[in-house]
Amino acid sequence: MPRVNSPAELEERRQKILSKRDPNKPCITICSGTGCHAYGSEKVNAALEKEVKKQGLKAKVDIRRTGCHGFCERGTLVVIYPEEICYVHVQPEDAAEVVRSAKENKVIDRLLYVNPTTGEKVIHESEIPFYNYQNRIVFGNNRRIDPKSIDDYIALGGYSALSKALSQMTLEEVIEEVKRAGLRGRGGGGFPTGAKWQTTRDTIGEPKYVIVNCDEGDPGAYMDRSLMEGNPHSVLEGLTIGAYAIGSHEGFIYVRAEYPLAVENVGIAIQQAERCGLLGKNILGSGFDFEVKVHRGAGAFVSGESSALMTAIEGNVGEPRPKYIHTSEKGIRDRPSCLNNVETWANVPLIITNGATWYASIGTEGSKGTKIFSLVGKVNNTGLVEVPMGITLRDIVYKIGGGIPGGKKFKAVQTGGPSGGCIPEKLLDSRVDFDELARLGSMMGSGGMIVMDEDTCMVDTARYFLDFLADESCGKCTPCREGIKQMLDILTDICGGRGREGDIELLEELSEVIRDTSLCALGATAPNPVLTTIQYFRDEYEAHIKEKRCPAYVCKELVSYYIDPAKCQACMICLRSCPAEAISGGKNQIHVIDQSKCTKCGNCFDLCPPRFDAVKRISGEPVPPSLPEDERALVRGKE
Ligand SMILES: Cc1cc2nc3c(=O)[nH]c(=O)nc-3n(C[C@H](O)[C@H](O)[C@H](O)COP(=O)(O)O)c2cc1C
Ligand code: FES
Fold this sequence. Notes:
With 639 residues, the chain is α/β, with parallel strands linked by helices.
């Protein structure tokens, strides 16, 4: 891997790589992201390589392992270029056919994606509805490059932004460009990136540090992981440009240790960039020196908070500290330190290459560019989606997500991670941007988006997030340590049928205190899930407290099952499926559920044949008395 010593040599290198690649030669790409890996992409890859060899096509067909495409639930994904033919759920047994089809430029019908709404088969990846409402400027290259190959990145224009910044722009011009682009931090708060860079740059103190935050502790979120695993050079390039602008010569990439592939791929990327002269001393002959180390995090949610993360990098336990002075001025070892999220850094090369005007043309007045969300929950298409700021929540849920499965009704969408908020159906036409989501009581967060259907209990949802936050609170400050626990106890009581008049008001009061007095944003934002569910779903809280009723039939202590003797046909299905042996009866005897043994698993309710409709689920009302033993003989044909 020869060193490139100037922008001209980088361009020469790019031309050389491109000259060796025939754009018309079929290239079978196999997604090797974590999702597809779990579906067995390694085996698919091995089978495809074997087949190419077996069919004597090594010179005629290329194979490339890529990062996550986003549509993980359809893994293993295989896309054949240049036609961009997309196959879903590919298995090792399909290898021979896939290789043959790539050579002959034919399409394998049975491996195509079928649109569940129209029943139509879709050939090209970009025509799948999940993709064609997206704008994948940051995430898009994941599917085109092997994350372990710097040449793949360079071939697509990689490192030309760094080259431009170092050779054609002053430090001030780089910061000015990022400011004009309107880039705001993607890690949660949406703080203007250029302004943060400026502060670190202007603060007196050496050395200055730049850091990538790839802690990503939000349950269900994996955007940063997929970028780091799938396109680590884009993050590295953004970081190096930032270091140049800020005047930093030392950077850290903080990755949670639970992301071994991200750690591996970014480690390889650093080594390759160093060998190429794109990191280290005298980068591209500019005289600028910059080196990067990977720091593996210990996996606590709170360690993603800026001061906690920097404390961890110093070698201490990753707990937050008071931030009377921002970390951008006094961070690692009290030196000016600029921390940005993975996605924030990955946006920087795009801004430098295409210019602030282009970038600012995407998005809304106050939120520019795109945002990657991990769309999960009760939605047909789950996965990673990159959308322009300003898209409506409805478009994400229905056009990209394909709506709610099983004909159920939409109830809410939760954005912003565990400290975010739940947005109800009446606000589905709200636009996704930092300020709009905050106005609704939620926040952008780092990009978790959980869709909930009518079977979700909003009180239980608030309880779930508070449970997570109580567990993850570092315990250093009293309002967060004790306050969240108190709120959790109240919510647990409400879900358990022990709620009392005044609980809602008490939750609101506690929220205010915790928000105003906590040491860090974990505590300060923890009340969000409670406050938004009270704001938008107060009737559900009241049903739990006043009527001891869970409208969604989720809170087990408020739900009962019984068998309607007039409808039971003694088919034995529920009896056999009951794991607690709580159902008694015989082939000719009406079944009865013993309430003292019932664990409320709901198996009997789910399995009772709809034509009988004998198992009843109730909440907020007493279970009718069961028939005495001697009246349970079944007279068939009553139906
Ligand atoms: C409890 C807590 C956890 C956080 N976790 C993350 C995280 O995993 N990733 C992240 O980028 N930011 C996280 N943040 C936000 C960071 O403190 C910081 O604002 C962010 O990394 C700055 O980058 P940005 O300006 O690019 O958004 C967290 C904040 C808090 C309070
Ligand atoms: S891991 Fe393959 S599409 Fe996400």
